[in-house]
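Predict structure. Chain length: 481.
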Amino acid sequence: MFDGLDALLLARIQFAFTVSFHFIFPAFSIGLASYLAVLEGLWLKTGEQRFLDLFQYWLKIFAIAFAMGVVSGIVMSYQFGTNWAVFSDKAGPVIGPLMAYEVLTAFFLEAGFLGVMLFGMEKVGRKLHFAATLMVALGTFISAFWILSVNSWMQTPTGFEMGANGQFLPGPSWWAIVFNPSFPYRLVHTVIAAYLTTAFVVGGVGAWHLLRDRDNRHARTMFSMALWMAALVAPVQIFVGDMHGLNTLEHQPAKVMAMEGHYTSHPDGAPLILFGIPNSKEQRVDYAVEIPKASSLILKHDPNAPLAGLDTIPEDERPPVGVVFWSFRIMVGIGFAMLGLGLWSLLARWRGKLYDWIWLHRAALVMGPAGFVAVIAGWVTTEVGRQPYTIYGLLRTADSASPLAAPAVATSLAAFVIVYFAVFGIGTWYILQLMKQPPHSGESGVKRGADGPIRSAGITPGPTQNPGDPDELPRNQEEAS
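Prediction complete.
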């Protein structure tokens, strides 16, 4: 039944599906780990119980999101060997060490301190526990550092040499590979996106509980903190995004042409197409709503600057315009919506109505998942805009896939769809149930259970004995025997 399908297309769909599921969890956990560090730091500095309560409240959610991010990420590595074996063989000498560095530095750091962070509040001193929280937050950032370095090298490959067998080999300096031309922009843009994603989730949860109880002190705190983040960081993200776009124009002009919908060159200034329907067959954007010369003003800072179009790119090297055009507008539109909500919150603070304006709370609730949509749209823009290459300009996607038949890829894709929606759907549902409960004084955090954390090996200790309870001793002795 799958014989008529294209194995390459199915492999691309499978990778897109699994990485989309995976991406939303690190995007959340990177920001949430830093938010937990801020909450614990404020508690240690001020001694206010509300910060500790919010720390314990979000710690439970972080534990689940982090676990789902780890599990979904493992699949990505296997796909390099199953569906993309040729790419792995050719690019492995470059990307393999970078991904190994991510495991050795970031993952080991996170794994080493995660247990202390989750279960060590009453076992270690406050300062040591805070240090563990900081290490987990640092580990999430280091993980993003290495993964984005790998992805950026695929976008703007530098520092390599071509081997006699067609492999990409490291050149004299690894720094040229790690800090490739697009990496700094991509790193800052993605990490800020993760922080904003978390801020709007926290703000949405705070808004939900304010709509139910306007006097909830914990909801007020997290709502206020989240909207400060939106008001201050959203403008920075727009500026960073603009800088990233200029970098992309320099190194991947075809991607920017697709983003802008410029099928033809504009020698006297290019218009900014706000909306329209890309028509690749006729090489135009139908029903275009545009601002004359605004694209040249944004990209070249000169309204009369010429901009090349896709007519200067060979047809077999052009990315799919429709997907890139719309995913880019979704990302940018959400970015400006975030900015608008942040400015609205500043007005509410100035008027002393931050906790009283119901429509502001409703807007924040609607915008709660907006960060996830924006990061997925940004990822689609980046990856589809790189087509038809896996390593931009050097290795085509069609030449990167494993020699598999369509039924094999289709079967694994169907299995992934079923398992992912079942497992991660249940996990997401449970996170939403936790968010639905209002934070309160005396939050317990992650529960250890009667016997402590489950062990994978060794002897599980029995219930903790109370030395002052003589009735407990015989029962414990009998269990031990």
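Summary: Residues 7-46 form the longest helix (40 residues).
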